[in-house]
Design a protein that fits this description.
The structure holds two protein chains of two kinds.
Chain A: H1 10-18, H2 24-42, E1 45-48, H3 50-65, E2 76-80, H4 107-114, E3 118-123, H5 157-164, E4 170-175, H6 181-187, E5 190-193, E6 213-218, H7 221-231, E7 261-264, H8 275-290, E8 294-297, H9 306-321, H10 340-351, H11 354-367, H12 373-393, E9 399-403, H13 419-423, H14 430-434, E10 439-447, E11 450-457, H15 463-476
Parallel strand pairs in A: 2-3, 2-4, 7-8, 7-9
Antiparallel strand pairs in A: 1-3, 4-6, 5-6, 5-10, 9-11, 10-11
Helix pairs in contact in A: 2-3, 5-6, 7-15, 9-11, 9-12
Chain B: H1 4-13, H2 20-37, H3 72-76, E1 82-83, E2 86-87
Classes of the chains: A alpha/beta, B mainly alpha.
Chain lengths: 489, 96
């Protein structure tokens, strides 16, 4: 097995490490070699920290030799470049943060390090996590490992592509309106967005603070459970962090979904949803039904409003959060400016890309005098209606099943000229984000050689139930003929 | 819905020095996006209270205990211009 260690899941590698069959150094070298072999094609990484990773691998092997154990000890992971890493450049894929080296670790990064994980690098993304295709990276786009002419989804496109192409065993991403789930669906991996408040956001560079959550992208549901357990839990440094206990999610996965009620809403299968995608998801729901779940028709009538609500609220919050990038304390600056106003306006014009500027403008407008009530306040009210839809639905069902993305991966460049067409890529992930609910995307087949994702949504803090259903489906999923990734060619 | 003058005004509020071409493009984009947002006006929300955040936490309190802060060197290392242990910026007030 020593040739292809990079292909292992977290669970498989953990078993091999525990059995003494492999070392973390072997495993990390294999992953670094894999990155060397394929990353020029995927563009998944912005920075590979090979030397530091090998040092962490050696330290993990030493810890194990000293009697230490744990599911992430010695496991090579990738971190989306929106999470601060002590002493390692963090750019958010933006030119405005060029040269920024955080003097601290995000809480999730610190927790992974404490668990003995090996951090191999920082993954590419849409600038400041704003985008659905990873084409808004200020550095270079990411290509979908299944078809290099397609996008990987976004904004955690680098993390999804890195997992799909076996350039890490698992990765962290961040999800504001679907940025973990949608790229996971498009790249054929598992992506979990926890309940808002479940995972600390300390050290996660802020985009839209009432929505942002950190979540794992993995090769299996079990691995998502392991990463969630390692990263979740109260953090006094994040005032929105919930003081709830964190179960051992992985230990509860036994494939039993007998009697669970799965809600299916017509609003998630309507206009704009690709027929092949809808059919793959319906098959997945059929498989769950055949194994003891009860399928119930529900309705989520305000689903169609999620897109305008999100694209008012998220840019509004972003316009405030991104005010801090002004050339003073870090990042790009303009020493020639005659006064501070000119410096800020010039630095921001040079450092931000087109989509970030568009969202700052949209948010500033929606919050500006005379428009606040018509846009921001109204959007917050409709957000209440969207949340109430879910509250009502969860009175009669345990989880909701739907497609993650309306289509499979689309062409690179195909939507860049039309912001609204790009925004529609998130239409099925936005409602759960606005309601703060945990949701997961799990692969459920292929259409024309491109992966499809089944999205499951649960009530707040019911990640254990979500993972149970996703894991049960993963066990039931029919074997698809082995498809070869384009990145292997 | 949003005219060129408003775009220029909002860009000034947002401290974004947009080029003439960017202003034109921005106006067209915002126009198209705001038009799509008109859908929200179809709903009667007069009796609905707004949702700012979704978690059941109110004001979070903690003991007022000090912790060691980040070191000055670590923080200043990222500043583009430092003089005498302070961050240097261009003039804040216009010259008389």
């Amino acid at each position: 097995m020593t040739d292809d260690l990079f292909r292992l899941t977290v669970a498989e590698a953990g078993d091999a490490l525990a059995a003494g069959d492999i070392s973390s150094v072997d495993l990390t070298r294999s992953v670094l070699d894999r990155i060397d072999a394929v990353d020029a094609r995927t563009g998944a990484y912005l920075l590979v920290t090979a030397d530091a990773a090998l040092a962490q691998a050696e330290a993990a092997d030493d810890r194990r030799a000293g009697g230490d154990a744990g599911p992430l000890l010695g496991i090579p992971l990738a971190i989306k470049d929106v999470l601060c890493t002590d002493g390692v450049a963090t750019t958010c894929a933006s030119r405005i943060l060029e040269g920024f080296v955080p003097p601290f670790d995000a809480t999730v990064v610190a927790r992974l390090k404490d668990a003995g994980a090996v951090l191999v690098g920082k993954t590419n993304m849409d600038e400041f996590a704003m985008g659905s295709s990873n084409e808004n990276s200020g550095y270079h786009p990411v290509r979908n490992p299944w078809d290099l002419s397609k996008v990987p989804g976004g904004s955690s496109g680098g993390s999804a592509a890195a997992v799909a192409a076996d350039e890490c065993l698992a990765a962290l991403g961040s999800d504001t309106g679907g940025s973990v789930r949608q790229p996971a669906a498009l790249c054929g991996c598992v992506g979990l967005k926890p309940t808002y408040g479940r995972v600390s956001r300390y050290g996660l560079v802020a985009f839209a603070s009432s929505l942002d959550q950190v979540g794992p992208l993995t090769k299996s549901v079990h691995d998502a459970a392991v990463l969630l357990a390692a990263t979740a839990g109260h953090d006094p440094r994040d005032a929105t962090s919930l003081p709830e206990p964190v179960p051992n999610f992985a230990a509860e996965l036994d494939g039993n979904v007998e009697g669970l009620r799965v809600g299916v809403a017509p609003e998630y299968f309507g206009e704009g949803i690709d027929a092949g995608v809808a059919s793959a998801v319906e098959d997945a729901i059929g498989a769950l039904e055949a194994n003891g779940t009860e399928i119930r028709a529900i309705t989520l009538p305000h689903t169609e409003y999620a897109l305008p609500v999100y694209y008012v609220i998220a840019p509004s919050e972003a316009s405030a959060n991104l005010a801090r990038y002004n050339g003073v304390k870090y990042g790009l600056s303009d020493p020639q400016a005659v006064d501070v106003d000119e410096m800020m306006a010039t630095v921001r014009a040079q450092g931000f890309g087109a989509e970030v500027k568009r969202r700052i403008m949209l948010g500033t407008f929606a919050l500006s005098s005379g428009y606040y009530d018509a846009y921001y306040l109204r959007a917050q009210k409709v957000r209440t209606l969207i949340k109430q839809d879910f509250d009502t639905a969860f009175e009669s069902v345990d989880v909701i099943a739907a497609p993650t993305s309306p289509t499979t991966a689309f062409d690179l460049g195909g939507r860049t000229a039309d912001p609204l067409a790009m925004y529609r890529a998130d239409v099925l992930t936005l409602p759960a984000s606005l309601a703060g609910l945990p949701a997961i995307s799990v692969p459920c087949g292929f259409v024309d050689g491109l992966p499809v994702g089944l999205q499951l949504i649960a009530p707040p803090l019911h990640e254990a139930r979500l993972l149970r259903v996703a894991d049960a489906y993963e066990r039931l999923r029919p074997e698809t003929p082995a498809l070869r990734q384009a990145v292997e060619a | 819905m949003i005219d060129r003058e408003q775009v220029v005004h909002v860009a000034a509020l947002a401290r974004l020095a947009l080029s003439e071409a960017e202003i034109d493009r921005m106006q067209a984009d915002l126009q198209q996006i705001l038009q799509a947002f008109e859908a929200l006006n179809a709903l009667d929300v007069s009796d609905v209270s707004p949702t700012a955040q979704v978690i059941p936490l109110a004001t979070v309190e903690r003991l007022d205990e000090t912790e060691a802060p980040l070191s000055r060197d670590d923080v200043m290392r990222n500043a583009p211009r430092v003089e005498r242990d302070q961050i240097r910026v261009p003039a804040v007030l216009p010259e008389e």
